Amino acid sequence: MNLGVRIKNLRIEKQMTIEQLARATGVTTRTIIYWENGQREMTLGNADKVLKALGATVIIGENGWIESGEHPISLKLPEGILAKCVKKGK
Known about the structure:
The protein has 90 residues and is mainly alpha-helical.
């Protein structure tokens, strides 16, 4: 299952509208729709904002996977993204 579908399912589970999620993350409703339908990819920063707004704790593991505590959400990071985040202090 891709990240967009997992986010949509979690948003629905939390009884949050697309408009509420958009406001909480500072993006447009159209952007949320694109992400949920897999039409656009999210940056790591936007994924962090969305997951936090949905109450998911994000952990970046050594193997390059992003996982959340109570609600399992994972995606494979592009090669080298971990190194880029470390260099920038993120």
